[in-house]
Design goal:
15-stranded mixed β-sheet, elongated
Length: about 325
Amino acid sequence: MSEWSVAEPRKLAFDTPVSDLHVRIVNGTVNVVGTDEGSARLEISEIEGPPLIVTQQGGTLTVAYEDLPWKGFLKWLDRKGWRRSAVVSLTVPAETRVEVGVVGAAAVVSGINGTSVVKGVTGDTTLVGLAGEVRADTVSGNLEAQAVTGDLRFNSVSGDLTVVEGSGSAVRADSVSGSMIIDLDPDGPTDVRLTSVSGEIAIRLPHPADAEVEANTASGTISNAFDGLRVHGQWGAHKITGRLGAGNGKLRATTVSGSIALLRRPPREDEDERAAWERTAPPSAPTDLTEPTGPSDDTAHHTTGDTAHDPTRDTADDTTGGTTDKKVL
């Protein structure tokens, strides 16, 4: 086993292949990048407080404080230990299994094909281009995931979850008060299960979509952009049910007092056409390719249960009864 005690900025290179990476820090930043190179490199550009201990034993590389264990990490509340900070950057082979623990630090993990596990207390986490399974647990830290193709599981007390262009086969998320914004663009059937107590849930599905849908809220509002789904309930509890396409995928969303919005992605050919137009159009040319007449792809049928705020609401035309209206999302 090789070991280094790093108390000042330093760079290290590791010739022995790395298959597992463990990082545990308090404040600062952790950046982990997967590459096609067979070796791993570490740069600690800033450090305050006690030294970080770097060890390499077999294929496992660890960068951590001696008194900050992985077990029970989310309950680590040593206030004296909070007076420490480090900025840590690592490049590892893309197939590496990654474990990152941050108390108040920000974590960024990108380009990893192996399993990624992230634990955070108050620090926010950003995941980009991960192909392996992802597990994230936070207390109040937020998670943003972009272009993640592996299965994603998220648990939090009050942290928010944002997924952009998610194409994995499964998304599971549980939170007490955190909001969830899920933008899905899968290549096949997807199993999505979202649960919150008071957090708001917004899900954007591809058009055409392929899923059995059931969404429930006890006292929140409901917005639905799909004609093939039914909205049940005018007062109190509301539910969206139905089948989109062949119903090969599954979508289950449940919240007690939060709102639920089901949005519709434009067809991919429309997105490609818009992107091509914006690349070639002169600066003065309009970039909005939407036809001036008829409803847009993001028109949603909205059912209100109370006065809870709906973050997806832009415009509304209330009907005479005051229980249903249409919104442009």
